[in-house]
Automatic annotation (TrEMBL):
It comes from Peptoclostridium litorale DSM 5388. InterPro entries: DUF881 (IPR010273). Signal peptide: none annotated. This is Putative membrane protein. Belongs to the UPF0749 family.
Amino acid sequence: MAKKAVKKFDFMFLIIFLFGITIGIQFKAGYSERYELSFMDREIVTQINQMQQGNSEISRQLKYAKKKINAFENSSKESEETKQVREQVEELKLTLGYSQVSGAGVIVKIDIREDVNLGPLMEEKKWFLSILNDIKYYGGETVSINGQRIGPYSAVVLAGNHINVNSIPIVQPYEISIVGDRKSLLKYFNETSIMIDEMKGRYGMDVDVRAYENITVPKLDVEKKPKYVRR
């Protein structure tokens, strides 16, 4: 009799245990697992689930789009800053003479028919200095003398009996290549300059000036750095 009571108790315990598991499953189930709902309720639940899934997907796509937009804006801003820095560097290189330049301009050749060294005379009269200053005033932007680029640190001086440009000796004929305003430069060399008239008339020098559509002015061979400037 006692054994039957124990078996009956075990059987009832098993039923209660299984019933508890079933209730737990029902509480944890989502909308899609609530089959006890009516057909209309199940349709509403299905639509709610679909809307929630759709909203989640839209939210995810929106976050992704915002992330891409922010990345693009940051990238564009950085690219623009980089472009500006690069342009500033190129402008600085142009000013210092560290980049080759091409453009419209004139070429001036200075020589003399006689067998005379023009170096000492050019230095004595400071003609190179005057010509270079006038070139800037009359629209010259980039200049070279016998292939030597004239930069802010360039020196055109007499060394012995010849002219040095950037510490490089040059000899006549002197060829000055200028990229700049051709019309203004031609007027200066052919009409305006009293100094050029003196070079031709008094000293018998040949000053030939010709305009060109394209002239190439080379960059400085060696970047000359200031010795005494401190940062």
